[in-house]
Amino acid sequence: MASGCDASRDGSNDGPGVSAAEDPDAALVDRVVAELTELAGLAASVAAAYPRLQSAVRPFGDLHAAHLEVLGAEPPSAGADRGSYAGPAAALKEVRVREQRSQRRLVDASLAARSGSLARVLACMSAGAAQRLARLSPLPAGEEA
Amino acid sequence: MSTLDAVQATLAAEHAAVYVYGALGAQTSRSAEPGLYAAISSAYTEHRARRDVLTRTVADLGGDPVASAASYELPARLDSPERVARAARELEEGCAATYASLVANTAGVRRRWAVTALNDAAVRVLAFRGTPEMLPGADEYADR
């Protein structure tokens, strides 16, 4: 997959005329797409297993779908399997931990990108994830079971 | 845009942010709006620190750090906490876009600094009653 997303090219350090075949960021984008696809699946799975967590996890699914689109990838199809979790609290904890890890990886990907435009988009993605994580509340007391 | 130009543009934005946050703090009651006052005070302190870092960075790059303007245009009608919060939110969103541009025009530790500042600005927007976006700092995707 090419990293030539439809990101704005304002003020980048990119060289001219890099084709998809020789895009030095192609493998990086592939890794990001794979991780976001997996996380979108996790959000759908948790929402299917625990409908009352939908409002908490759906924003992450929507975020990943939007980011995949920006990267020129297809969002995962609907119809997620219900995962196997030890309860809603455990499921929500898994979402939080993996989303935090992904957010840090987006930062790392931004730092590793050869293309300035791609670095900018990945950094903005990490900022979007940081906002969602800041809004992710723990389960209210008494709802852990 | 060169790295030096991008850092200078960010420094100019920080000068403006420090000025405007100072004005917003003056318009906010510490006793009546403690949460908003604390958020503005925190932002003011952070942007001052960033201004100082950027000033040194410009010098390190061999440039002459852009000076602060004598004054900046303030948002109109800062006569309610809601308007102050909105002004702070819009200011922080503008800073996020500036940091994002800095990301595109830097590498290594300077890019890391810009990414960190972008993430901080995005989260800070929420303290000013903002809502999460898909790509904070990337205005071309604001409708997503």
UniProtKB/TrEMBL annotation, chain B:
This is Ferritin-like domain-containing protein. It comes from Nocardioides koreensis. It comes from the Bacteria. Coiled coil: none annotated. It holds the Pfam family DUF4439. Residues 6-139 form the DUF4439 domain. Transmembrane segments: none annotated.
